[in-house]
Amino acid sequence: EKSKKWRKRRIVINQEKRGEKGKKRRKKKARRKRRNEKEKKENKEIRENTIGEKKKVKNKRSGTKKTVFLKENGK
């Protein structure tokens, strides 16, 4: 009798934990999405406002290479 109750309680505890983990995951995903949108917007502005040579440089955060424009309009 006692073990049955405990088993039910344990199931409930695990479900609660699962809910918390899901919440964390969603928060992370949202944060990542916002950051990516921001970067995309910045990159688009740079592309529109620049002409001239292109050069591959290392991205500080991810370590991947990305194209950067060396000459800007009006400079």
From TrEMBL:
GO (cellular component) term, any one: ribosome
Region feature (Disordered): 1-75
Stretches with biased composition (Basic residues): 1-11, 20-35, 55-64
Biased composition annotated in UniProt, kind: Basic and acidic residues: 36-54
Keyword field: Ribonucleoprotein, Ribosomal protein
Official protein name in the record: Putative 60s ribosomal protein l29 synganglion overexpressed
Organism in which the protein naturally occurs: Rhipicephalus microplus
